[in-house]
Design a protein that fits this description.
Layout (H helix, E strand, L loop, with lengths): L1 H35 L3 H36 L5 H24 L7 H25 L1
Length: 137
C-alpha cells in the first residue's frame, strides 16, 4: 500500500509541475507574442480571459505540489547536507514560482509576459535540481 501511495504522490508532483511550468512556457513563448500582434482593444480581453481560464489550474497545481512535496520530504528522511542545501534552494525557487503564478492569474495583473519569463527560468532550474537530487538519492 505504501508503494501505491508513493507512486500516486510522485505522479501528482510531476503532473502538477508539468501543468504549472508547461503552462507558463506555453503562455510566454506562444500566447504572449500572439497577443502582442492583436489590436489594442482585443489584447486586454484575451489576456484576462486566458488568465481566468488558467487560474483554477494554477490553484490546483500549487496545492498538489505543496501536498505531494510535503509527502516526499517526510517519506524519505536521512539525506546528506548537500541534498538538503539543494532542496532548500529548490524550495525557495518554488516559492517564487508559486507567488508569481498566483499573481499572474489575478484580474488586472500587469506585465504578465515579463513575469512569466521569471517563472519559466525558475521552473526550469527547479526541474534541473530535481533531476540531480533524484540522481544522488
Amino acid at each position: 500500500m505504501a508503494d501505491v501511495l508513493a507512486v500516486i504522490m510522485r505522479w501528482l508532483h510531476i503532473s502538477s509541475v508539468a501543468t504549472l511550468v508547461g503552462g507558463m512556457i506555453y503562455g510566454r513563448f506562444v500566447v504572449a507574442p500572439v497577443i502582442d500582434t492583436l489590436p489594442e482593444g482585443s489584447k486586454g480581453s484575451l489576456d484576462e480571459g486566458m488568465a481566468a481560464r488558467y487560474r483554477a489550474l494554477v490553484y490546483a497545481a500549487v496545492a498538489a505540489l505543496v501536498l505531494s512535496g510535503l509527502y516526499n520530504i517526510f517519506a524519505t528522511p536521512g539525506h546528506s547536507p548537500r541534498y538538503h542545501m539543494l532542496l532548500g534552494i529548490k524550495l525557495l525557487l518554488a516559492l517564487h514560482v508559486f507567488a508569481v503564478a498566483l499573481l499572474l492569474v489575478q484580474p488586472g495583473a500587469k506585465r504578465r509576459a515579463r513575469r512569466m519569463t521569471g517563472v519559466v527560468i525558475s521552473g526550469l532550474i527547479i526541474i534541473a535540481i530535481s533531476a540531480y537530487l533524484r540522481r544522488i538519492f
